[in-house]
Amino acid sequence: MLRIWYDIFMQRTIRIQLQPSASQAASLADTAHQFTAVFNAVCAVGWEQQIINGVKLHHATYYPLKSAYPALVSDLLVQARVKATEAVKSAFALRKTGRTVGMPVSRACPPRLNLHTYKVDWESRTVRMSTTGGRQTIRFAVPPYNAAYAGYPTDTADLIARNGRWWLHVVVTVPAPTVAPTDQVVGVDLGLVRPAVTSTNRFLGKRGWKAIEGRLFKLKRALQKKATKRAKRHLRKLSGKQARFRKDCDHVLSKQIAYAVEPGGTIVLENLTDIRKRTMIKKHTVASRRVHSWSFAQLKSFVAYKAEERGCMVVAVDPRHTSQTCSRCGHTARNNRRSRDRFVCRVCDYELHADLNASRNVAAKYRASVGISDTGGLSSISLSYPSEQSA
Ligand SMILES: [Zn+2]
User: For labelling, which of 193, 213, 242, 372 has a CA lying 20 to 30 Å from the CA of 234?
Assistant: First the structure.
């Protein structure tokens, strides 16, 4: 059942810009403020009493908070608690891995609205929503880039303030594209120097990313050694900058990857989720991975999001040996790789770009796992180096 639903519909998040009156804007600000206060209060209880169970946190906090914030409707109170539970849970999980983590605190936690607290009327371009100033009908505009998804059934929405403007990030359920699946399989090798190389000879992303990432990394290291308050503040800023930079890169790269495949095809990535935990992978291999400290989960989810719109599937395979195996004869040896870029097979002398070789192994691993014969095979592989795609 779930599978059918997934195939016919997909969820997209669209941003709509609210156009509140001055008094409505004040209500929105007050709602966001109270929601954040409840979030922080629940976090404090969860953190101090070590509660990560949502029901227990509800019992411990609901009535005191309800009387402290009577203007906040019950459902918003509950949503703040749900968000706080997640925050406390992940903080405890992070602490278990040995990181120094403090109690979660938010300066602006976006209120989460749902069918109890808001209703979009696409026709009149108004949204009716619960605020601390009562139920309000607020006009909104849909930016052109989201126009295609306006009018569909809504799920939840987050209320977000940015640069003095109010936005709703609305999750809508839209029909998935009807694309017949094809046999096309494109393997992708992810790296630091070459962010992504496909088995169809495409070099994606920018080489300059590594230098920027390296600079941010070094700066962070230097600041981590200083214990001053100023250094700590600088470090927080830098961490935000790094996260935004990586997110931007992931957006660019995921789009390029999703468009490297024809509609209906399959994209194969290496499963790098637990790469740091794997002891079987040698240290230098790990260091050469872009995802050493970079979130693979984020990139994968971005690729999946964009691929879904094109009717493509995204799968992940075991990354072991993909860089050491000859994609022509299958001989596996570490010394097949002569340098960072150059792969020369010790047995059959097959020579090509090392990342390209790896990406073909990634594709072949998936084909083998689902029993697709390697029809593309050797005949279609050009033996010359591909020209680098200008990005
Ligand atoms: Zn070979």
Answer: 193
